Amino acid sequence: MAPEPSHKPLSASGAAQDEPYLPFARPSLDEDTIEAVADVLRSGWITTGARTRAFEAALSEYFGGRIAMTFTSATAALEAALLVAGIGPGDEVITPAMSFAATANVILRVGAEPVFVDVKLASRNIDLDQVEAAITSRTRAILPVHFAGRPVDLDRLYEIARRRGVRVIEDAAQAMGSTWRGQRIGARGDLVVFSFHPNKNMTTIEGGALVLDSAEEAKLAELHRFHGIRRTPEGDIDVELAGGKSNLTDVAAAVGLAQLPRLDAFNARRRELAALYFARLNADPQPALPARDDAGHNWHMFNPLLALGRMTIGRGEFIRRMHERGIGVGVHYPALHELALYRRLGHARHGHPNAERIGRETVTLPLFPAMADSDVERVCGAVREVLAGAKAGGAA
Ligand SMILES: Cc1ncc(COP(=O)(O)O)c(C=O)c1O
Questions:
Q1: Does the pTM exceed 0.85?
Q2: Shortest CA distance to 371 belongs to which of 9, 20, 32?
């Protein structure tokens, strides 16, 4: 796909570059997908309908027969999951101190309180050693994140949850196709939520899914998904609760139906590209690479930590210099308790050192299935060049 003209980068000398702009993420949408969308648009039925039902059936099969419900986003699906679990005012939910804001915001949105636990530096996942100590009489759920698609230790997580009598809502927004001990994330567990945002390993443009076992809870989730409307066997409608409106459209579902069969190939390519980064990303000062152990990892992102203490420039300037070289770099994520909202709510600014360090130092390098091996070489070359020019004590 041609880059947006506005993204055409300038080189350090100010000259427009010949190489196309390399974003840090880009969806792989083929002509069949575009045709499938066009078919829906021509059909006269463009909102929730047969395609959405077919996509939910395909997801259910993918997750070993569990119930799969689609939503307009993972954020909406997470909120529905919390409501289905009966979580509300007065309740605490334990969640990692480093994630996308949606992970914690949804807890606030249902009136409950997020309790942040630090993440492990190597895995970036919630530190299960600290989870148990954070459980109080008000804790109703643990809401872990499979960060960048690296699976959380589900055996340990569910052992703690079962023993302490709390629910689990897995934020698997980034974990489509990840596995834990050979089993897909989502194929087991309590309430599991995925995202199909365009940056994710498969997309529906915007979209998400809630995977669960209980038909009763699915009925409740349906009420939250669509205005609280219940249809009686007689064909009347009634409204049971003040539900939201977060049903997926058939246009989005058509994209999802075309993406799902390609997911394994997408993820296999992501793993190859990640392996190439591990082999080629050497610079001075050397960034700290993510943990290499990639069993079950879908490599949704590749996030090294910059050695800021040994650099003469900050992260913002690093990103700007990479952009000058035609390369997009993201930041995933600042520590949640350091965000203005959570500070205002009284969360201490310090106390989760790994999340804080990641929040300061992390950068997301380009990683998406359509990348060529030479793109990884190009990124590594640019990182090397930018860091060589920013080495503390070296040439400026
Ligand atoms: C960890 C995590 N949780 C939740 C979300 C929210 O997903 P969505 O954009 O589908 O609402 C995202 C999306 O970036 C995410 O990365």
A1: yes
A2: 20
